[in-house]
Structure formats: C-alpha cells, structure tokens
C-alpha cells in the first residue's frame, strides 16, 4: 500500500511538472460567459436542476455550472485555482480508473499502464488546461464512481452517481448499457437493479432527442453515413494507438478488455452524430473504457516499451499544444485587461459592435467579459458584418470594439458627431463602424474580406487626384477563381476596374478628377465569388487591405 501511494505521488508530481504551464494560462470565452451568468443564479436553482428529471435544452448542466458559481464566489478572476481544481480532479479520475482496472482483473502493472496511457493522453489536453471542460472531467468522475459502486453492489450510490454523470454531460445517458455489459461479462448477470437506470436513461434521452429537433447546427444530431464517417475520421488519430495491445494479443484478449472496448464504443457513439461539435477533449469519458481495455490486454513486457513510446510522442505533441495554448491565453488576457481598463464608460452603451477578437474568446466571451468588468446584467453584441447594422443601431448608444491581432491592441470608440470620417480605410487598423456599409466581414490579419458586393463611405479631400484599392490575394483564392475582376464606383461613377491573377499584396490605382470635398459612397463588385470550402461557408469577394483616397492635399 505504501509503495502504491509513493508511486502515485511520484506520477502526480511528474504530471504537475509536465503541465505546470497551465497556471500561466487564462480564461477562454466559455469560462467568462459561464462566470458572468452563473454569478446571478441562486444556489437553490442549481440544486433544483440537479434533481429535476427534465431535460434542459439550453445545455444547463448543474454540476459544472454550479462549480462555476462556487468558483466565481470564492476565486473571482484569479485563474490558477481553476486549473488546480481540474488537474486534481483529473488525477483523482486516474486513481479511480486504476482501482476499476484492478477490480476488473488487471494486475498492478497493467492497471498502471492503462492509467498512465489515459492521464497523459494529449487528446484530453484541454481537460487539464482549460476550466471550460470541467463538464467532461466531472462526467468522468461520476462515471467511474458509478461503475465502482455498481461492481461493489452499492446500487443506490451507483444510481446517484449515474444521475450526476448525466447532469454533467449528456452522453452519460448510455451508461446503463455499460453497466448491463459489465453484468453479462464480468458480473453475475443481474438485470433487475438496472431497471431504474434504464428508466432514467430513457426519460432523459427521449426528451433530448425530441428537443434536438429545434437545436442549432452545432448540436444537431446527424446519423447519415457521410456525417458519421467525417466525425469518425476526425477522432480516429486520437485512439488508434490504444488498440495496439489489443491487435497484438487479440486471441488472448481478456473479457474485461472486451467490456472496455464496448464502453468506449457506446460512449463515443453520440459524438459521431455531432459533426458540428468535433473536439478531441470530448473523448474524455470514452477513452476511459479504451484505456481499461488496453491496460487489461497488454503484457507487462510489452507494456513498458509501448508506454515509453507513447509518452515520448505525447511530450512532443504537448509542446506544440502548450505553445498555441499560452499564445491564445495571452491574447485573451490582453483583451480582458484592456476592456476592464475602460472603467465606468464600459457600462454606458446599449449595444457593442465587435470587430475581431482573439481566437479563443468568441463573441459570447466578450459579452461575458463586459458583464464581469462593467457589472452589467446583459451585454448586447452585434458583429461588424451584420447586414442590417445601420437599422439595428439607429437611435442607440454604441461602442465599437476593434481587436488588432499583431499588436494585441483593443481599440474602443463611441461615435460622436465631431469624429471626422477617414479618407482612406486601412482595414488592418481601426475603421469606424459607421463608415462600413453592408458586405464586410470582421478584420483579419491586416485585411478584411468583402462579400461579392460591398460598400463603405469615405471623406473625399478637396483636390484629391487618386483613388486606390489594395488587396491581398492568396494561393487558395487564385486556385479557386483563377482571375478576379473588381469594379469600383464612387457614388454613381465607375472609377475603374482591376484584374488580379497573381498571389500577394497588390494595389490598383486610378486617376480621378478634382471634385468638391465631402462624404462619398464607395462600392466594389467582385466576380467571380470565392467559396473557401466546407470549413468556411462564407461567400467572399476579395480581401481588402485598404480602399479610398491615399493623398490628402495640403
């Protein structure tokens, strides 16, 4: 017992050393959103949802969201305690997995191999770096305790933990099938105690299926063969290695390993029908079953070299993930700190127009950040690319939030009559929202995509003699359209046309006759349209770097 405790402490220390960089991370969009809205919910409401047999279509998960409520009350916006919580829970799950494998007939060495394979698996990286995946961690915790309780014939405790697992993540609804297979493979084939489990599973599951008819595209179930093939192919790289022990010793695979594989397949199946929600961290609970199968099947003399190879590959993988994670975290921190520094003025606008944001923040994260920083109950967000932007903001106080990725700079502005209109719109920098009409997307790295037809307004300086359009033509763009033609109008007059059939930054310019200074409407028409592909459903025109009058006579 002392030897096991010493080994467990050593592995926990190694895990912390490998993942200590997580404490330098920061909140992501889901974190800020959850912290913002859960702080306004009374503790009793979480308890009511916890015991309620009703399915919540808005993805209200009382275990994880209740933990966010407690986190916010106790830790506020100090990030390290959040990471410490999920990492401790993850290590606890590894110990529970080890215990379950021993109860399934595995030796200490086999159980150690299976637990180590799972605890360091980089598909689960987000589960011990990002608090937003605490729902998967809690689902894993309650699933393991339910299985251990069931194997120890503690039916009531098993049912309570199964219920909590369902209230943490919906795919736990299939856990009764895993318990039934345990009974038929490793147990005594008792089925009567499982009746309340299946009744609860059917009750919640059928509600979820009917509610899914109104679900958004990300949560819409799709059982078509092509969709299932797509999701299977996306998840395949994250679990093929675990099958090596099973393939090597398939003729002598123990019964527990077959049960673990069935567990994996059952809990994975709901995710294969969700092509809009593909994320390797969602394998958290299914991989518990696969880790158990691999550990029970492997021979100790093969387990050590396989595990060493596995850990080496995961270390290389981790370095890549860690670098990207900390970069995104730094961006999120910079955005939130600059937003908080605005002070009381942040609470004044009725609407907020977001023009770009860090990759890991998203618009709902910005809304959560505003609610947290300004103490507002609600923050109404509108994207800069909204076609009906002018109508939606009419008569309202509006703040524009412009994020410049290269400099990590957040620029905010509230429109005022005294603010002069720009003559040249540099799309890589701040552009006042009232100068962008319909047909523009949010700013990207130094440019802004237009739709095939787009318009904006600029100030024509007195005596201006030149009009310019600067574009960024990428290789995918040329491959898709071969040659792009752009027509530019100022008010009703065609200024000129330009063709682009080469890659890189290019500038088209036209000489214009001197006309009176004033506000003009600039329109661009692009043909043919550019469709990037399935991953990006937008219909695009051209990537504009700048447009307008480059010369401002003195």
Describe it.
- With 554 residues, the chain is of the alpha+beta class.
- It has 2 domains: 2-298, no CATH class; 422-554, Galactose-binding domain-like (Jelly Rolls, Sandwich), CATH 2.60.120.260.
- It has helices at 2-19, 29-38, 43-51, 62-75, 80-103, 108-119, 134-151, 155-166, 175-185, 195-211, 225-235, 244-248, 255-272, 284-297, 300-340, 362-374, 389-393, 475-481; strands at 351-355, 380-383, 398-404, 409-414, 424-426, 440-443, 448-450, 453-460, 466-473, 484-490, 493-500, 504-511, 518-527, 543-548.
- Strands 5, 6, 7, 9, 12 and 14 form a 6-stranded antiparallel beta sheet that branches. Strands 2-1-3-4 form a 4-stranded mixed beta sheet, with helices on one face.
- The chain is elongated and about 90 Å long.
- It starts with a helix and ends in a 6-residue tail after the last strand.
- The mean pLDDT is 88.
Shape category: elongated
As for the number of domains, it is 2
Percent of residues in β-strands: 15-25%
CA(first)-CA(last) distance: 85 Å
Mean pLDDT: 88
The residue ranges in which pLDDT falls below 50 over 5 or more consecutive positions are none
The total of beta strands comes to 14
Largest sheet: 6 strands, antiparallel
State Rg.
28 Å
Structural class: alpha+beta
Instruction: Note the total helix count.
Output: 18
Helix content: 40-55%
